[in-house]
Amino acid sequence: MAAFARIVVSAVFAGAAAGVLAALLQLVFVQPVLLHAELYESGILVHFGAGAVSAHQDVGGVVFGRDALSILFTLLIYTGYALILVALMAAAEARGAVITARTGLLWGLAGFVSVNFAPGFSLAPEVPGVAAADVYARQAWWGVTVVAAAVALWLIAFGRGWAAWGAAVALLLAPHLVGAPEPDVFTGPVPPEIGAAFAARAFGVGMAAWVMLGGFAGFFWRREAARAGAAAQA
Amino acid sequence: MTTVTKTATASDADSVLIPALVAGFIGLAIVFAAGLIQAQTLHDAAHDARHSTGFPCH
């Protein structure tokens, strides 16, 4: 029970801290690109229409209800990730790994690669309005790719010998050699410049958020250990 | 640091497994609900966060 409480407390603190910062980064850097794309998705702006469209649009400011929901769900998503991350950290520590805020940064980077970059390599972060294959097929491929990448990174970090590393390479490559579900035709109305900016911003914010999540997770995991140790001695 | 970790964890290796599994499962459930369930209301509320965090959306 003590171990469960320690995992949950560390994860909730880390997820809340990284989630709030991730939400702020998203609202500042990703949301304006997303709102700009929605002007094309909704037909208010038309790419290659009758006249040239200015690249500089008023995309609106803060929309309280919408942005509050985005913050809430970003918090939830990163708290969920934190619970998984800290659980894996606890399992690794039991096998002899050293978990601190500093090593946590590497765990966070591995989380970014597993959850954002590996699936995004073939299924790039989608700007609103892009053509895409069936959502359930993409979600299934996304889930399999995330798990495969996470197992691969675990094998690279903790595996011993060429068998483990070879399996890791196969797990990293396989989803992309099989290929992600793709649409039959391209129908996206959004300029490619906006789509590219969106993918780059989503990756950048994702990496920053995950590295912070890993660092915070390591930090709170150590702090809870120190607290448990102090309580045991008292 | 290293010695502390080793002495503390040698006996914890088994006791941490079940709590870690339970916590990880709760985390999976939260990620699934916030990121993947396609129910209309949930999708609309999570829309911007899902796009920004790279989930397949729509």
Automatic annotation (TrEMBL), chain A:
The chain crosses the membrane at residues 68-92, 104-124, 136-155, 162-178, 198-221. InterPro entries: CbtA_put. Keywords: Membrane, Transmembrane, Transmembrane helix. Pfam families: CbtA. This is Cobalt transporter. It comes from Pikeienuella piscinae.
From TrEMBL, chain B:
InterPro entries: CbtB_put (IPR012667). The chain crosses the membrane at residues 16-37. Keywords: Membrane, Transmembrane, Transmembrane helix. Pfam families: CbtB. This is CbtB-domain containing protein.
